[in-house]
Structures are given as C-alpha cells and as structure tokens.
Amino acid sequence: MKLYPRIAIVILMLSMSYSCNREDQKQQVHEGSQESHWSYEGETSPEHWAELEKDSDCSGQRQSPVNIIDIHTVEDQNQESTIELFYSPKTILNKVRNNGHSIQFLFDKGDSIAYNQTNFNLVQIHFHEPSEHTINGIRYPIEIHLVHQSQEKNYTVLSIFGFEGEQSQTMEDMESFLPLQKGQEKEIERAFDLSRLFPANKSYYAYEGSLTTPPCTENVQWVIFKEPIVVSLEEVLKLKDNMPLENYRNEQPLNDRLVYLHKM
Length: 264
Description:
InterPro entries: Alpha_CA_prokaryot-like, CA_dom, CA_dom_sf, Carbonic_anhydrase_a-class, Carbonic_anhydrase_a-class_CS
Protein name: Carbonic anhydrase
Organism: Lutimonas vermicola
Low-confidence stretches: 7-34
CATH superfamily: Alpha carbonic anhydrase
Enzyme class: lyase
Cofactor: Zn(2+)
CATH class: Alpha Beta
Helix content: 10-25%
Oligomer: single chain
CATH architecture: Roll
C-alpha cells in the first residue's frame, strides 16, 4: 500500500515529461517551417505574404518593388545624393546557397559602398527571374540584387538589370558553381571580382522602400542602375533551372514616395 503514492508520482512525472516533449516537438516543427511557409505560387504566393507574416511589413505603405516611370522621376541636378563603389578583386566569395527562393552568393567583408556618406558592407547577392522592378512597365529577363548592410542594420540594395545578348564572363564565373539543389550550399573560399558586373554608365534611380521578400522590412534604400548589362540566354536559363519559376514579387504602390534620377 505504501508503494501506491510513489507509483502515482512516477506516473505523473512521466505524463508531464511526455506532454513537454510533445510541446517541444510542435515547437520544432513550427520553427522548422519558418523559412518555407512563403513562396511565389499558390496559397503562399506574394499576394498572401501579409496574411502569412503577421509581424512583418508586407502590408506597409513603402513596399518594393515598384514600377519606375521616367517622366515621373525627379532629377537630382545638384548631385545631392552620392554613391561610391569600393569593390576589390580580392574579396572572398564564402559560399553559394540555394535557399529555395533564389541562388545566393555570400561574401566575406571586403566589398562595400558609401551611399550618402554612410558605409554599407556587401553581404550577399541573389537573382530574380524575371525582374522585380519594372521601367516604364517593362520587365527585364533578370534582376541582380547586391545587398549591403550598414553598422546600424539598414540596407542599401544595388539593382542591376540584364537583357539577353552576348555572354557575360562574370555570370559565367558565378554559374560555374551550379547546379545546386534546394537547401544545398557549397563552400567556395576564393577571391571573386564583382566589379566587372556593373554597367559602364552608372546613372541610377533611387527611392526608399523595403525588402522584396518576407518580412518585407521597410529600411531599404534602393539604387537601381538605369543601364542594363548583357547576359546570354544560356546564362539566364541556367539560373532559372536552379530557382523557383518566376521568383518575383509584383509591383507595389508608390504612394507618396518620390523616385530620383541621378545622372553620372
């Protein structure tokens, strides 16, 4: 009879342990799905991001991308906005990753920009096919995003459009690390010169917006080069084969924002 209280305590402890383990499993499943509960199609497509991302800015008033209409831009005739590129051929490409949404190239510190006298370090570059931003309603075959972050955790993203034509040696070099399956990454650890990627004419549009993927954070300064670069059809298709089909977000309302044109 004296054993009964002890048995009851043991049963109670086992029951509590089982309950805790079940909660832990639920939490792990929830956390494991955080990176994949949005996509570019179906019920998790961009039209539903605001519903899926309750604590995000995806329904904000300063979202990206946008359609840029030339006649509506404001020319910066006094050159009040400045950008300087500090790209070194010695910067190390750390790894290449397929995160299920795009192909990312991640870099060690080395390449940076100075935008309006604030320094931003290059973090990574990735691709959208077709482009997310449009110019006068025209969507390019590819848009390259070079993501830079400041010490204060704000972003400046440089955007480069590409259209089909001759082969780009820089794109060829980047695509030499493909294919990558979803969730796969490769360690690279070699110097990579991104300075060759930029167009010769560095005139650009600029506006304040957001990240174009969840959580759509509205702390991004966009610098969009007006002149596209030339890439081959084969390069466009090779990237497309490694990414979701049409991984772009549709244009967002400009609202009260201005788009500036800076001629170089």
